[in-house]
Design a protein that fits this description.
Helix content: 55-70%
Largest sheet: none
Distance between the termini: 76 Å
Oligomer: single chain
Radius of gyration: 23 Å
Number of strands: 0
Shape: flat
Strand content: under 5%
Structural class: mainly alpha
Order of helices and strands: HH
Length: about 80
């Protein structure tokens, strides 16, 4: 008698670890590749270009980091007076 086993669904934690690891590794590779643009013999850029790039990266990183912070419960004060 052969019993068929249902494929085990991954837990939410396991799914997070799998997806977050894959995406983080890809992001780190992309950042390293962006660093290749610093080669002045192959590319022409100025300080404003660099500042604009890193501002966009820092803004996106800050916004994403904020999504992981647990929201603070704010007490709402209400009065009709």
């Amino acid at each position: 008698m052969v019993e068929e086993q249902e494929p085990k669904r991954k837990s939410r934690r396991e799914r997070f670890k799998t997806v977050a690891t894959r995406r983080t590794r890809q992001l780190l590779k992309d950042i390293q590749r962006l660093g290749n643009c610093a080669n002045r013999s192959a590319y022409e850029y100025n300080e404003a270009d660099v500042a604009k790039m890193f501002k966009a990266i820092e803004d996106a990183l800050s916004a994403t980091h904020a999504r992981f912070d647990r929201p603070q419960r704010k007490e709402v004060d209400f009065s009709l007076e």
